[in-house]
Specification:
single chain, 523 residues, alpha+beta, Beta-Lactamase, Alpha-Beta Plaits, 2 domains, 6-stranded mixed beta sheet, 17 strands, rod-shaped
């Protein structure tokens, strides 16, 4: 069955449709904002990973270049020492040989710019020959780490020791040394080639790295040999506790990692490589902030743009949702006004009961229903006894109050939702009782009569001294030959019969048309 605009279900359906619209708008705006944030995050994360990958590749290339240069530097010094050590083992280093050795040492130092000098010490650590013209004086080098190493190890492999200050001129050098034996293989002394620390410093400076970046050369045990930036107090410190030496080198001889430096605590991307020929490790690092500087700028700009877009979407969404709310409020007001108009059109403003228009429409509907279902329909017509006298005695304002009190009494006796109490006109009321036979109709009529009397409304013009009502009752099972007009006429006739018989009573009109008084109250 179609639903009219006046049907409350139509208004509720509209409200139910509008409510998801507001939620859907909020959800849509939230999803759009989340998608923008998600896309921004993905774009920035991809950009960050790209920048780090580029920096990692650059760091790897840098460490490879530094490692190659370091290996070449130490290898040249190693080859010089090896050739000289073989010569000394064959020919010895007597007084005749010293002059020739000094000139040979000096030529080799001049040929290799990385060499600070070449030195030969006897088995007691005293200077025998150096690349310098003047032989140093002093206690010797018996206390040096490299001398003690060769004194205790028979290996002829070159040994690279911790950086030291030369006792010749105080310059920082990295010692590369070899054991010197006699023809029988007995320990005769140590030959040393000192590699300038400044050579590596200049070499490191030839690479372009950021201000917070670093390049370092260390022994495999973590002892720092050279570093850019050069800090004298850091030379010789141990890096063994750093993650590169304690964690990463154990798994791979080369690689990269983002870690904090054990020297200054700065977070850097470190590329590392262990030399194949010598127990040395090279690291090259770029600071994380420097690597991501461009990314930070891009992230800030992108985030600002997305924030402005989200703000715009949020403002638009706020306006849209606000308009939806305004529309809902207007719709509610219209529905309320429509209901009020409907109430005004179908109900009496004084008593709040249904008016005659609603009564006639309801009667038509019930008439058709009772015809289909063959059910009984009851009707009570009543009016206030001597109401003209009441108005004359107390005035029309009091008369209105009296009508309202009687209406409340009538309404209180309509116990079912289908019962309809009506102000039929003036002081006349009606009660429509669906599915009610004549006995039930009379019961309700008597309840109304007693309810009115119980209110004790003073009426000096009535014989009882109080306001009373007369009621006419009629009930029957309608057929297609009957009409609502005849039904009303019969109940109205019963009302006139009650008045004719003395008022303050309920009367019923039989189906045959005979009037009979069924009840009468005590006066």
């Amino acid at each position: 069955m179609p639903i009219s605009d006046d049907d409350p279900r139509h208004a509720n359906g509209t409200a139910l449709k509008r409510l998801p619209l507001r939620k859907a708008a909020v959800l849509f705006i939230a999803v759009v904002c989340l998608c923008l944030c998600g896309l921004l995050y993905l774009q920035l994360e991809q950009s960050r990973r790209h920048d780090l990958a580029v920096a990692e590749a650059a760091s790897s290339n840098l460490t490879r270049a530094v490692a190659q240069q370091a290996e070449d530097t130490f290898m040249k010094a190693d080859l010089v020492l090896t050739s000289l050590a073989d010569w000394l083992q064959m020919d010895g280093f007597d007084q005749v040989q010293k002059s020739l050795l000094q000139k040979t040492f000096a030529r080799r130092v001049q040929a290799l710019s990385q060499l600070h000098g070449i030195f030969l010490f006897d088995r007691n650590g005293q200077w025998i020959v150096t690349s310098f013209e003047d032989l140093p004086r002093g206690p010797g080098v018996a206390d040096r780490e490299y001398f003690l190493y060769h004194q205790q190890n028979v290996s002829s492999v070159a040994h690279i020791g911790p950086a030291i200050r030369s006792r010749t001129n105080g310059e920082w050098i990295i010692p590369v040394s070899k054991r010197v034996n006699d023809k029988d293989g007995h320990f005769q002394g140590v030959m040393l080639a000192g590699i300038k620390m400044s050579y590596f410093d200049q070499f490191f400076k030839s690479f372009s790295i950021d201000e917070d970046g670093s390049i370092a050369l260390a022994l495999t045990d973590g002892t720092l040999l050279a570093r850019r930036p050069f800090v004298e107090s850091q030379i010789g410190q141990s890096l063994a506790k750093g993650e590169i030496f304690s964690k990463y080198l154990a798994g791979a001889m080369s690689g990269s990692a983002m870690i904090s430096s054990v020297l200054d605590g700065a977070v850097r991307l470190h590329g590392y490589r262990q030399l194949d020929a010598y127990p040395l490790v090279v690291t090259a690092a770029s600071s994380r902030d420097s690597i991501l500087k461009g990314w930070y700028d891009t992230a800030f700009q992108s985030s600002l743009i997305v924030a402005l877009v989200i703000l715009g979407i949020g403002l638009f969404g706020w306006v849209f949702v606000r308009q939806v709310r305004v529309g809902e409020r207007v719709e509610r007001d219209l529905r309320k006004a429509k209901e009020e108009l409907k109430l005004i059109a179908t109900h009496d403003s004084l008593t709040g009961l249904a008016n005659r228009r609603l009564f006639e429409r309801a009667l038509e509907i019930e008439f058709r229903r009772d015809i289909r279902q063959s059910s009984s329909l009851g009707l009570i017509m009543l009016d206030i006894d001597y109401f003209k006298r009441y108005n004359d005695a107390y005035g029309h304002v009091a008369g209105d109050h009296c009508l309202a009190e009687v209406a409340r009494a009538v309404k209180s006796c309509c116990h079912r939702p289908v019962d309809l109490a009506v102000r039929y006109g003036g002081e006349e009321f009606a009660v429509l009782l669906p599915d009610t036979d004549i006995h039930g109709t009379l019961v309700v009529a008597e309840q109304i009569r007693h309810s009115v009397m119980a209110r004790n409304i003073i009426h000096s013009g009535a014989p009882s001294g109080h306001v009373t009502v007369s009621l006419g009752c009629h009930a029957f099972v309608p057929t297609r030959l009957d009409s609502p007009e005849v039904f009303i006429e019969r109940a109205d006739a019963a009302l006139y019969q009650a008045k004719h018989l003395g008022r303050n009573r309920a009367a019923v009109l039989s189906i045959e048309g005979a009037f009979g008084e069924l009840m009468r109250s005590d006066r």
